[in-house]
Amino acid sequence: MNLRPKPLLIGLALLGLAFANSPAAPLRILYFTKSAGYEHSVVRWDAGHSSYSQRVLSKLAPANDFVFTFSKDGSLFSKDYFDQFDVVVFYTTGDLLTVGNDGQPAVTVAGKEALLNAIEGGKGFVGLHACSDTWHTHEHGGGNPTERQGRYHNNGDDADPFVKMLGGEFIRHNAQQVAPALVVAPDFPGFGGLGTEIKVQEEWYTLKNFAPDLHVLLVMKTENMRGPDYQRPDYPLAWARKYGKGRVAYNAMGHREDVWDSAGFQAMVVGMLKWAGHQVDADLTPNLGKVASEASTLQKWVALPEKK
Fold it and tell me: Which end of the chain is more exposed for a tag (fewer CB within 10 A), N or C?
């Protein structure tokens, strides 16, 4: 399926995105987009503190009984702060314990611990695209490190606690291109109308440190992809898992504005939010070994040409 933009309500109906009646209480969602590293255009605030992705989510909210809080302020993180929300969404980059590139307040060490405790205690968490480029294992400080050779191996139990919660970690991407992602869990909320594959122009991430209990939703089909970072076996691109009592979902797509405009991507996001917020259930049988058995085999590091 190509993720072409469609009118929102018509597009969702065509995808067969049907959920049970909404509960009496709306789903309270924190959309957190601090960028200590690279700041993506879809989360960059304009003068009115609104971003492209925020405007898309705001349009989705009424039909799905969502109430969003939009923030880049990491200093607010605490148990009491997370008690206000049912689901936390991250579209973030870098070491959030530093102010970094966007100049927004950093998360404290205690705030990071409060986040992980909140999820383990039952809150939902949804990571989009650059979320996996956050709190990299053994990388500290703001900005984007120029030396990334240390990323090209799996860290196992030594991975950052945030990475272990999420279930995977970003390595690098090469040039944007049209490539297929296989839909391997069509029964998961929001994925049922996508067909057998998604084929779209996107900034495709390569990933590592996969948790063994992943219920994989999308698999990156690397055959015929251009660039040294895709010279590896197929690997998970989206997944869901439990973290303590909490529900965690991640989708590496979402770099481009036209992807955010598409009915297919919106359906996936809505489905992940409703599942993470305990409004709908899904089978979480681990399937990593079945759908991407060689995912732990990583590509070799290759120096890329400097951008001019």
Answer: C
